[in-house]
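Key result, reporting period 2: structure in, sequence out.
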């Protein structure tokens, strides 16, 4: 992971070294540092190398980033919330290629919107499930998948004031992807309310 300590400093946020995670409320002893460590190590109970688990890997990265935007750059919020929207709202089958396409699309999008900032929900109000719940409360891969999905949905819902913005981005992305290539085209299923 990038040097999150430097990014927090740049964002003017003081990181606390002890107790619960100051951003998501995870039951840690060493605060955000432990929360980041748990996230970076992945969860041993789920095998992310299996293609069927890639979906859960994407959900994990999005949920953790959106619970801790203070340790990420401004445009990460757009990327992760849009990806959640595409996966959870439009139920698009995501893969790594689509992640790079979405990054490219956002690079174009932000060219004339450099000031746009998705203000995060208040700290500790970004979903109740945290890294330590996944680490400590699941005992098999299926439960872990379920918990990760709930984690993703809760975090996504907590950012609901920006769903309209990311819906516009998502639709622009789908439209552009469809006009460029017929391979690996995101297929927009009927929207699902979460
Ligand atoms: Zn945390």
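The corresponding designed sequence is given below.
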């Amino acid at each position: 992971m990038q040097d999150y300590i430097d990014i927090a400093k740049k964002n003017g946020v003081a990181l606390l070294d002890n107790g619960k995670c100051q951003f998501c409320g995870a039951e840690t002893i060493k605060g955000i540092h432990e929360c980041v460590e748990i996230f970076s190590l992945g969860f041993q109970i789920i095998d992310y190398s299996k293609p069927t688990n890639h979906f859960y890997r994407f959900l994990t990265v999005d949920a953790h980033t959106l619970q801790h935007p203070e340790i990420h750059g401004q445009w990460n919020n757009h990327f992760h919330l849009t990806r959640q929207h595409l996966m959870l709202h439009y139920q698009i089958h995501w893969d790594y290629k689509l992640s790079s396409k979405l990054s490219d699309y956002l690079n174009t999008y932000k060219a004339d919107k450099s000031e746009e900032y998705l203000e995060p929900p208040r700290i500790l109000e970004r979903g109740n499930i945290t890294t330590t719940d996944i680490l400590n409360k699941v005992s098999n891969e299926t439960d872990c998948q379920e918990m990760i999905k709930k984690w993703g949905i809760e975090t996504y819902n907590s950012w609901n004031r920006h769903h309209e913005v990311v819906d516009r981005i998502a639709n622009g992305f789908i439209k552009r992807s469809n006009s460029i290539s017929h391979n690996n085209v995101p297929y927009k299923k009927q929207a699902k309310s979460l």
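Residues 21, 23-24, 26, 32, 35, 67-68, 130-131 surround zinc ion (CB under 6 Å). The radius of gyration is 17 Å. This case is discussed further under Risks and Mitigation.
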